[in-house]
Amino acid sequence: VEAVHLIADGKAPRIPQPKEGATYEGIQKKENAEISWDQSATALHNWIRGHDKVPGAWATIDGQVVTFYGSSLLDASVPAGQELAIKGASRPGLVTKNGLVVFGNDGKMVLVRNLQFEDGKMIPASKYFSADETTALELTEEEKKMAEDIK
């Protein structure tokens, strides 16, 4: 009751909270989420995972900002895949059937499952080199007839 009366009378003490020991980090910004490649695989995974979904950890690939989503540590032998140069990385990533494998400075691997481009398009990382390919839809004779009936 006494504390309520002090507040009501405007006489309650005001003690500023010290900054030391504070754990609040504030809102992360996209420009601060660039991946620094000179770290262990565990640190890379934690960085990508920690920025998943907002703002999204990113790197520059082929002159374009690409955001990485869905990382996991990969504890296996180096898989077969197509090399992908990533700006700042000491070794190229590998586009495999399961996703994009990137390497920490300890030689261990991180698997990234999804990539998002600057235009907002998101693809499975395993489809990086086939992202621009389009497949023409071919209809059977029966489907062509049905399409005409619908028109």
Write a brief structural summary.
The chain has 151 residues and is an alpha+beta fold. It has helices spanning 2-8, 41-50, 141-150, and strands at 57-61, 64-74, 82-84, 93-95, 100-103, 109-116, 122-124.
Structural write-up:
The protein has 151 residues and is α+β, with helices and mostly antiparallel strands. The chain has a domain at 30-133: Methionyl-tRNA Fmet Formyltransferase, Chain A, domain 2 (Roll). The protein has helices spanning 2-8, 41-50, 141-150; strands at 57-61, 64-74, 82-84, 93-95, 100-103, 109-116, 122-124. Strands 1, 2, 3, 4, 5, 6 and 7 form a seven-stranded antiparallel β-sheet that branches. 21% of the residues are buried. The mean pLDDT is 89. Pfam families: Formyl_trans_C. Residues 29-130 form the Formyl transferase C-terminal domain. One of its GO terms (molecular function) is catalytic activity. This is AL1L2 dehydrogenase.
By helix and strand content, what is the structural category? alpha+beta
- Distance N terminus to C terminus? 77 Å
Order of helices and strands: HHEEEEEEEH
Low-confidence stretches: none
Overall mean pLDDT stands at: 89
Q: In one word, what is the shape?
A: flat
Q: What's the architecture of the domain at 30-133, going by CATH?
A: Roll
Report the major sheet: 7 strands, antiparallel
Task: Predict the CATH topology of the domain at 30-133.
Answer: Methionyl-tRNA Fmet Formyltransferase, Chain A, domain 2
Radius of gyration: 25 Å
- Note the beta-strand portion: 15-25%
- CATH class of the domain at 30-133, named Alpha Beta
Percent helix among the residues? Answer: 10-25%
Number of E-state strands: 7
Q: Report the CATH superfamily of the domain at 30-133.
A: Formyl transferase, C-terminal domain
Number of helices: 3
GO molecular function, one term: catalytic activity
InterPro entries: Formyl_trans_C, Formyl_trans_C_sf, Formyl_transferase-like_C_sf
Organism: Bucorvus abyssinicus (Northern ground-hornbill)
Protein name: AL1L2 dehydrogenase
